[in-house]
Amino acid sequence: MIEIRRIKKAFGKTEAVRGVTLTVSKGEFFGLLGPNGAGKTTTINILSTLLKPDAGTVRIGGYDVQREAAQCKQLIGVVPQELALYDDLSAMENLIFWGRLYNIKRADAAERSLEMLRLFELDHRRNSLLKTFSGGMKRRVNIAAAMIHRPEILLMDEPTVGVDPQSRHQIYQILAQFSAQGITIIYTTHQMDEVEKLCSRIGIIDHGKLIACGTLDELRAFSGDSQLIVVTFENIQPDKLEMLKKKFSQSVKIADDRLSFKTENVAADLPPLISLCTELGLIIRHVAIERANLETIFLSLTGRKLRE
Amino acid sequence: MIKIALKDIRIFLRDIKGLLLTFLLPIVLITLFGLAFGGLARNSAKDRPANIYVADLDSSAASIQTIQKLDSLDEIALTPISLAVGKENVMNGNKLAMLVFYQGFGDSIESGGTEPVELFYDDARELEANLIQYALISNLMEIMGSQSIRKKIMKSVNQRFPDIDSSIMANIEDEIALQFTPVSNKEDTLSATTTIGSQIGSLKVSPLARKKSIDWALIQSFAGTAVMMLLFGVAAIGSSLLGERDEGTLKRLLYAPMNPLQILFGKMLYSMLLATIQLIVMLAFTVWVLGLEINGNLFYVFLLIITTAYACASFGVFIASISGSRKQAESLATIVILIMSAIGGSMIPLFFMPAFMRKMAVVTINYWSIQGFFDTLGRNAGFMDIALSIAMLLLIGTAMTVVSAFLFRKHIYKVA
Ligand SMILES: Nc1ncnc2c1ncn2[C@@H]1O[C@H](COP(=O)(O)OP(=O)(O)OP(=O)(O)O)[C@@H](O)[C@H]1O
Ligand SMILES: [Mg+2]
């Protein structure tokens, strides 16, 4: 359904996307996970035909996003990162307007809007101006607006920012419903729990590169289905940490005041690591052993935490 | 395109403050300007008669009679003086102006030649002098008109048909005299001379056309204020395009399957609609409440309203497209509009301006629109008279639209 081939995009010196290749098939719920500035929004902008990639191609439903933008636009619904709605229109008026842009007849657009608002449990507020809505309510309308023209593909860019856990749960349920209806979804976020819960397949993006891609289980296997030893130090001493890396193992990842080491055998590796630290005069604040989840996978892949 | 415009209208109607600003403020301003200009005109014309010198070098019956008639008018008071002293005093700034009847004035009226009359004025007081000149010309033409034109017609007849029998000639003269005798009814005089004028062909009757005085104060107030207010309104709409960019709705508009330029044209269409309605409301107010009489063709007035709205609408998107942010667009718009209004005749009437200012004014929307409104509202101008104004408005509008369209395409990439 979506074929991304080696796309690149730079803004001046900032290389936002550096050669991403990815295929998402019909009906898949794909999670694109990455920290701030990883290139998620840039990728979504390219998929939604707004940005022209410097290199590479994207095909959506067989259509080239550059040359056949109009056909692609009919196929996709986009939930932008910002709340792209008119504050001075009511929820209904907003949805009808956005629907009308896809040449849906007024009556149909009204019917669909009401349907959407019911789905998102906002129909009791349908005639209130959007500016009277709470942040979470606006987020829901923001998603509904992308679905009015019944797209086959839904591109979502961090759609649940600032939503309380309860509404968030409701949104997840609706998205699961969409997915069950066969709608292909690409969902970007920097919240790994969302992706773990929702997505059938996950891609991890960092510094404009897709560094891993697969189901949660595949990712676990990819990172060795191992455990992760994370040691946090009291103070940052880069030279000593470098020394430790040299003496212990090159696969130790170091970021700031923290080192992480992926291992299949914690019992064998932990004692020598600790004694080496003491030997070097590094003061340990905290030691943790984690089972691979997306957070640790990301950590083991990049040496950095996801949310920083 | 239409959908985007409709959406904006819906939003606009919700905004009470905006509505007041759009319709009430211009009406208030027109009234204020109208009072100010009206007062100005009356001050120097009716309330206080303008006191100027008169130097009669001719001292013929005709010149004495003309001076008497002029002096008896409410607007003008004449003080006799010698040419040299009068000139000196005007140059020293003691008197606004001096009217001189040169020798041969009486003869030229008799013979149908051009009358040697001259107005000297203090160039530092050009503004007032313009008003005096206006009052003098119209009255002078009225006073001398019938005599002088009668002679001119006879002269012209004589030249064309030199062999004509003298008794027939006398007959014609009687006939013409008959037409002119009841000078009391001005309308009759005008129509009479025009008919004869068209019969004889070569006769120039243009000065008489001015006889029906135009209410320039009201037209100026309406046209000047209207264009300026329109520009402020459309600039706000233009900047809302940048607002939509900042708020992300522009991005969502771009997701939809349509040409991005439709977004731009949608905004323009909305601006045009609003500007047209604004102009019609303002004009209606000026006519019904302030009592402006429209002398010209209503269709031409409407044509001018539409083209003015178009030029203004393109100005709005133009400002937006050359600005980086909403704030920038708003401050740029304010500066540009104030300058255009100042040199284009919205604040100070164009005919008060020195010639070089008027030359500068041709780049402004205000200038062409105000000119056009003077032509269509003030005098019954034909299409060719307003064609230039309309063409220039279309030209300015289209030029700005094209630039906006080009720059808007570039801006799309900034959205993402
Ligand atoms: N229009 C732009 N001009 C210049 N640089 C840009 C532009 N858009 C994005 N960037 C840069 O490209 C990189 C990737 O940005 P992008 O918005 O794609 O990240 P993201 O993954 O969506 O981050 P976030 O989680 O903060 O939304 C960043 O370094 C950003 O500063
Ligand atoms: Mg982003």
Fold topology:
The complex is a heterodimer of chains A (308) and B (416).
Chain A: E1 2-11, E2 14-24, E3 29-33, H1 40-47, E4 55-60, E5 63-64, H2 69-75, E6 76-79, H3 91-100, H4 106-119, H5 135-147, E7 153-157, H6 165-180, E8 184-189, H7 192-198, E9 201-206, E10 209-214, H8 216-222, E11 227-233, H9 238-248, E12 253-255, E13 258-263, H10 266-279, E14 284-291, H11 294-302
Parallel strand pairs in A: 3-8, 3-9, 6-7, 7-8
Antiparallel strand pairs in A: 1-2, 1-4, 4-5, 9-10, 11-13, 11-14, 12-13
Helix pairs in contact in A: 3-4, 3-5
Chain B: H1 2-14, H2 16-47, E1 50-56, H3 61-72, E2 76-80, H4 83-91, E3 97-101, H5 105-111, E4 117-121, H6 126-160, H7 166-180, H8 186-200, H9 206-209, H10 216-247, H11 249-255, H12 260-288, H13 298-322, H14 326-344, H15 355-361, H16 365-378, H17 383-415
Parallel strand pairs in B: 1-2, 1-3
Antiparallel strand pairs in B: 3-4
Helix pairs in contact in B: 1-12, 2-10, 2-12, 5-6, 6-7, 6-8, 10-12, 10-13, 10-14, 10-16, 12-13, 13-14, 13-16, 13-17, 14-16, 16-17
Magnesium ion (MG) is lined by residues 40-41, 81, 157 of chain A.
Structure description:
The complex is a heterodimer of chains A (308) and B (416). By secondary structure, chain A is an alpha/beta fold. Chain A has two domains: 2-221, Rossmann fold (3-Layer(aba) Sandwich); 227-291, Alpha-Beta Plaits, CATH 3.30.70.100. Helices cover 38% and strands 28% of the residues of chain A. Chain A contains eleven helices and 14 strands. Chain A has helices at residues 40-47, 69-75, 91-100, 106-119, 135-147, 165-180, 192-198, 216-222, 238-248, 266-279, 294-302, and strands at 2-11, 14-24, 29-33, 55-60, 63-64, 76-79, 153-157, 184-189, 201-206, 209-214, 227-233, 253-255, 258-263, 284-291. In chain A, helix 3 (91-100) packs across helix 4 and helix 3 (91-100) runs parallel beside helix 5 (135-147). The longest helix of chain A has 16 residues, at 165-180. With 416 residues, chain B is mainly alpha-helical. Chain B folds into two domains: 50-208, abc type-2 transporter like fold, CATH 3.40.1710; 213-413, no CATH class. Chain B has helices at residues 2-14, 16-47, 61-72, 83-91, 105-111, 126-160, 166-180, 186-200, 206-209, 216-247, 249-255, 260-288, 298-322, 326-344, 355-361, 365-378, 383-415; strands at residues 50-56, 76-80, 97-101, 117-121. A four-stranded mixed sheet of chain B has the order 2-1-3-4, with helices on both faces. In chain B, helix 10 packs antiparallel against helix 12 (260-288), helix 10 packs antiparallel against helix 16 (365-378) and helix 13 packs antiparallel against helix 16 (365-378). The longest helix of chain B is centred in the middle third of the chain and has 35 residues, at 126-160. Chain B is elongated. The relative contact order of chain B is 0.10. The model of chain B is unreliable at 42-47 and 181-213 (pLDDT under 50). The interface between A and B is medium-sized, with 32 and 21 residues.
